[in-house]
Amino acid sequence: MRFSSNVKPHVLLLIVGTILLLGYVYFNFFSERLNGDILINEDQKSTSLSRLVFRSRVRNMVSPEKLLYKQPSVLVGRTDVVSVTPWLAPIVWEGTFDPVLVDNIYKPMNLTVATTVFAIGKYVRFLQDFLETAEKHFMVGFHVRYYVFTDRPHDVPSVNLSQGRHLSVIQVPGSNRWQEISARRMEIIQTTIERQIRREADYIFCLDVDSKFHARWGSESLGRLVAVIHPGYYEQTRDRFPYERRPASTAYIPMDEGDYYYGGAMIGGFVEDVYTLTKVCRTRFEEDAGNSIEAAWQEESHLNRYLLDNKPSKVLSPEYLWQDFKAKTKEVKVIRFSGVIKNYADVRPNV
Fold it and tell me: Was 27 annotated as part of a binding site?
């Protein structure tokens, strides 16, 4: 390249410097493209390396070819209950889904469903009925991994599990207060997801051990974030819900807010979404504890606050969380899962 003798030296230096700079940028850009790497700073590198990896992912609803099932209708169906929320999440009742169709959509996905239960202290006595009835009715035909948290691992009963179903016993400390046991559930589920469950399952259901299955609980219950309507309050207005009403608590819900009252005996969804829920609720628990506050119904209060802000993608009707002391109502055609009758003074460490 030749330059006119009239070009001043400082201008010449500027031109040459610009050319060199453009060449450097060009070289680095294409070098990165060829190597497939994107330069990141050390903080970004640390964050990406520490990010948890989950198995859960959204899949298409693919129906097998030539599958025969009853034609759905937009005019005929349940008229005695509401089957969709205001944010367009389905509310699952008997008669709102085709079990043959949904099973044939989900089973080819080769999913694994994690199921956690806490059998602390005398609550271990409920574990055998829980597991035996689950083997008959819960996610039949799917891979299921039970995670039993207990302070009495030697009292965990031996139950025959179907092929593709496994049980892990995880020892945790007991407590002299049932409220503390309840409060620590979120923390224990969160840490177990981090260490183990995220690598072993696609979906997770966190259930109460003092319960039994009575009828099908299947793939119709699967969703990104799943909650269940509490059987004691589905006929009540929001001002009658036992939300945490003290503004000082992070679980606080004002009298004029709230959708449904969700039962704390069931949390479900993608492992990743339930992980986020437990992590947030644990943080709020700890913040309340630092301010000497215990929410009215421990994890259930924090669960309801979380689900008010983060709407569930699917809501299960009270069929999926009944209470044995309640008579079945006309809306509840099938009782699928229910809490057993018990003497709290006998099974809880404190009343």
Answer: no
